[in-house]
Design brief:
alpha+beta, eight-stranded mixed beta sheet
């Protein structure tokens, strides 16, 4: 596991965006859950050539919250990206629990013989991906751990199916 500290005033500090794009290189599939997104954040990650190249190989399953920050422009952008990236499976998490928010920030990519797990404080926003002070980890995981992660992801989606909506 590697811990990274994103610092907007330090041009040599790694960014969450750089590490996500690096993690998708050579990936066969992936997914992620983020508390919120913005149009600019989606553009930075999902319109990057390395992410588009990844989507030509495999499916990316994205779940994004709408409790705060995420707005209609971001949802429209996501819908448009789903039209241009047919392997992008995106859902919004819309729940009915008072005083509770959907707040994850995690992404994973399956490689041919392993996986990469990226988890931290950054969301799919310009600030979260490269403009804020953020902390995140990048962890190489074994094929066995990747299989277990995907099982947990699938089980979580089934348990929360009633909250998962199309953008």
């Amino acid at each position: 596991m590697n811990l990274y500290l994103q610092e907007p005033e330090n041009p040599e500090a790694p960014s969450l965006l750089e590490e996500l794009l690096s993690a998708c290189d050579g990936a066969l599939s992936g997914g992620g859950a983020f508390a919120w997104m913005t149009e600019n954040g989606l553009r930075l990650l999902l319109e990057a050539e390395s992410f588009r190249s990844f989507c030509r190989r495999g499916v990316f399953d994205l779940v994004v919250g709408v409790d705060a920050i995420t707005n209609v422009r971001a949802l429209d952008k996501l819908t448009g990206l789903m039209d241009t990236l047919p392997t992008l499976n995106a859902s919004v998490f819309l729940h009915d629990r008072p005083r509770t928010i959907f707040h994850p920030k995690v992404c994973w990519f399956r490689k041919p013989k392993s996986g990469v797990l990226v988890a931290g404080s950054g969301n799919l926003t310009l600030g979260g991906l490269c403009g804020n002070w953020e902390a995140f980890t990048v962890t190489e995981i074994s094929l066995r751990e990747m299989n277990a992660l995907e099982r947990k992801w699938a089980e979580w989606r089934v348990r929360n199916e009633r909250f998962l909506r199309t953008p």
